[in-house]
């Protein structure tokens, strides 16, 4: 008796295809870059997407204001981890050849948008009252909201990209997968991978510019970008 052929991990987790998904992933990468730039510049030098950076910052004990850095970094790491855990529990893994469920996309995107919206509201209130000077308690709250949004956003990107090694919040893995594919002459989403890397930098540039020119509205950019990406993803497929 012959057993049924196994389905490889790559097949079970093949990335959904389609220009809409690719556009959304690039938009999410821009949003991540903008959100990380805002957090680093306005919330005490903390990343809310790049957890590797936070772990390194937490270990730099000679840095001025190190205790505050540890508090912010720990907040970001714990909340990001909790948000990603919830996101993976709340959404099914992708299946090859099957459009990812719109309901799951909607749940993840709505959660990320809700967290980012809360961040925008709290930031507007705090910066208006305190005149742009945010103390540690408020900073940690804002870091938590941003990390929650980006944690869920990371899950959304992973669900959409499958086993392609593409992420939109931390691009070391994306860059590694891109170079691996080029070195081994693999077919894959190289253009999208490269676009995501560039998009993250572009988002950081835009986020930095907004934080410098108009700090009160700086966190609006990631919110708008994620909302646009959600609209792109939830559009009914063309018949």
Largest sheet: none
Distance between the termini: 42 Å
The sequence of SSEs as H and E is HHHHHHHHH
Strand content: under 5%
Query: What is the total tally of β strands?
Result: 0
Helix share, percent: over 70%
Number of self-contained structural domains: 1
Poorly predicted sequence stretches spanning 5 or more consecutive residues: 1-16
Estimate the mean pLDDT confidence.
86
Helical region count?
A: 9
Give me the Rg, rounded: 19 Å
Going by helix content, strand content and strand pairing, the class is mainly alpha
What's the overall geometry? Answer: globular
Structure write-up:
- By secondary structure, the chain is mainly alpha-helical.
- The protein has one domain (18-234).
- The protein contains nine helices and no strands.
- The protein has helices at 9-12, 19-42, 51-59, 66-90, 102-130, 136-161, 172-183, 190-213, 220-234.
- α2 runs antiparallel to α9.
- The longest helix is centred in the middle third of the chain and has 29 residues, at 102-130.
- The radius of gyration is 19 Å and the shape is globular.
- The termini are far apart.
Secondary structure layout:
Elements: H1 9-12, H2 19-42, H3 51-59, H4 66-90, H5 102-130, H6 136-161, H7 172-183, H8 190-213, H9 220-234
Helix pairs in contact: 2-6, 2-8, 2-9, 3-4, 4-6, 5-6, 5-9, 7-8
Task: Write a compact overview of the structure shown.
With 239 residues, the protein is an all-alpha fold.
């Amino acid at each position: 008796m012959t057993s049924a052929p196994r389905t490889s991990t790559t097949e079970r987790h093949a990335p959904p295809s389609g220009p809409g998904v690719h556009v959304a992933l690039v938009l999410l990468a821009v949003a991540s870059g903008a959100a990380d730039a805002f957090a680093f510049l306005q919330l005490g030098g903390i990343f809310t997407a790049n957890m590797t950076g936070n772990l390194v910052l937490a270990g730099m004990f000679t840095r001025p204001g190190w205790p505050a850095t540890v508090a912010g970094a720990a907040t970001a790491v714990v909340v990001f981890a909790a948000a990603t855990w919830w996101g993976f529990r709340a959404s099914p893994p992708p299946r090859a050849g099957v459009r990812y469920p719109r309901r799951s996309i909607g749940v993840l995107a709505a959660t990320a948008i809700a967290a980012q919206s809360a961040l925008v509201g709290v930031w507007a209130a705090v910066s208006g009252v305190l005149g742009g000077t945010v103390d540690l308690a408020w900073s940690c709250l804002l870091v938590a909201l941003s990390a929650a949004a980006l944690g869920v956003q990371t899950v959304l990107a992973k669900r959409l990209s499958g086993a392609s090694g593409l992420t939109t919040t931390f691009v070391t893995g994306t860059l590694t997968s891109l170079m691996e594919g080029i070195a081994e002459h693999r077919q894959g989403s190289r253009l999208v991978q490269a676009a995501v890397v560039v998009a993250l930098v572009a988002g950081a540039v835009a986020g930095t510019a907004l934080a410098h020119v108009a700090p009160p509205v700086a966190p609006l950019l990631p919110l708008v970008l994620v909302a646009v990406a959600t609209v792109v993803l939830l559009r009914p497929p063309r018949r």
